Amino acid sequence: MAFLAIDVGNTRLKWAMYAQPRPGAALLAHGAEFLENIDKLAEGPWARLPQPQRMLGCAVAADAIKRRVEEQMEEIWDVPAQWVVASAAEAGLANRYDHPTRLGADRWVAMIGAWHRMLASGPARPMVVVMVGTAVTVEAVDATGAFLGGFILPGHGIMLRALESGTAGLHVPTGDVREFPTNTSDALTSGGTFAIAGAIERMVKHVREHCGEEPLRYMTGGAGWKMSPHMSMPFELVESLIFDGLLEIARHRFTG
Q1: Does residue 62 belong to any structural domain of this protein?
Q2: What is the mean pLDDT of the segment spanning 45-62?
Q3: Which end of the chain is more exposed for a tag (fewer CB within 10 A), N or C?
Q4: Residue 213: inside a domain, yes or no?
Q5: Considering only 65-69, 158-162, 240-244, which range has the smallest mean pLDDT?
Q6: Residue 25's domain is classified under what CATH number?
Q7: Residue 96 within a domain
Q8: pLDDT tens-digit series, residues 150-209
């Protein structure tokens, strides 16, 4: 029962084909494409894949992007596209967003992936889940599996573009992260990095005080590897949290 998992972000589509729709299933193939190349999937990397029996996707992009993905699937397979929408509860997590369905699907799926990753290795604890990409999200979950709330802030690229567009003389290359920057490139890169780190560390403090214990900390996203070394506290860097979450949701939905 081959299973296709798709993660559509703001700049790239990542996909993975598994032997079954459940955690721990064998990974058969995987890949990534920039959104402008979606229309080449059917005659490109997907042409060599087996027919999936199920598909589940997570998308933050517009409906038009999802439709382009569905069109590529329809060219070669007869499998319905199913997209995750955040709900009041799923796969052991409760959603305390004011309007649960308005929570970004990627945030919801990543939290589900992190929650079950934690349970597979020990007892339930509070956790902070960070995704570092085009935008940065910082989520708080308590030890009962209740999503308490989260931050959204601009990623490095958006910060730099905002400064370049709003401030004269800042069209400079990306620099390095330094404690005491002595040139504009390093000052911009260091400022953005430490601004993100500060927001993340503030959420850890909030969760620690609210829950009365130290939270587990997970970081994911395309730029997570850039951010992780500059944190003042350790984070477990997990590249696959979205796919881990999609597999867990698929297990609950498709296999019971």
Answers
A1: yes
A2: 93
A3: C
A4: yes
A5: 158-162
A6: 3.30.420.40
A7: no
A8: 999 999 888 888 887 777 666 766 789 999 999 988 998 999 999 999 999 999 999 999
Which residues are annotated binding-site positions?
Answer: 7-14, 97, 104-107, 134, 184
Count of structural domains within the chain = 2
Read off the tokens for 242: 């979205």
In 10 A of CB 22, how many CB atoms? 16
Residue 67, burial from CB neighbour count under 10 angstroms (0-12, 13-18, 19+) = exposed
106 is catalytic: yes
Q: Quote helix, strand, coil % in the chain, to nearest 5.
A: 40, 25, 35
Q: Which residue positions form the known binding site for ATP?
A: 7-14, 134
Domain that holds residue 186: 125-240
The residue behind tokens 């349970």 is 119
Residue 69 in any domain: the answer is: yes
Active-site entry in 106, 176, 186, 244: 106
Annotated binding site for substrate: which residue ranges? 97, 104-107, 184
For residue range 125-146, what is the model confidence (pLDDT) as tens digits? 999 999 999 899 999 999 999 9
